[in-house]
Design brief:
about 15% helix; mainly beta; about 50% strand
Amino acid sequence: MKLGDYKLIFVVVGLIGVLLIASPAVAGAIHPPAGEAFSELYLLGPEQLAQNYPSNVVVGQNCSVYVDVGNHLGSSAYYVLYVKLANSTDQLPNTTLGTPSPLQPLYEYRLLTADNTVWQQLLTFKVTDATISPTTATINTLQINDQTLSPNKTTTWNTNTTAYTYKLFIELWLYNQQTGTIEFNNRDVSLHLNLTRTL
């Protein structure tokens, strides 16, 4: 071998050595992009499956679903869930604009969750008193998790579904640590409820 060949070997071995010594520092300085941070909100039926959601409501009948919130934000999070009831003309949340419904909440959950965990709670509800006429229906009292509420929510007869239509929906709100406020997280889920004339 010639002297030039030895120089090349020394240079290559030296570069490999520098890379090996510098690799921990380089690895610490280079941060690969993290996964998307997000929250999830979903409902499961009474058997904790994505089926058998209550839809036809009978006065006095207990209905139930499971509410699930998944925290994938990279840190602990404080959430508020607002349960609301809408008739056929009420304004619902608008996910395109990122705005919540202006309706007042009937019920709420407050929860603190660790990162990469799912919080689950059984939500039971029952229409305990309703006034029904040939053209309108009013839910006078509603029980949510054994709390009696008086929404006095009136809707009109829907000829397409042959029922009085309501939506029981849940909005997900998140505590913003920078502003110190609870903000709509642009997530909502709903149950389409039919209160029929045959009650």
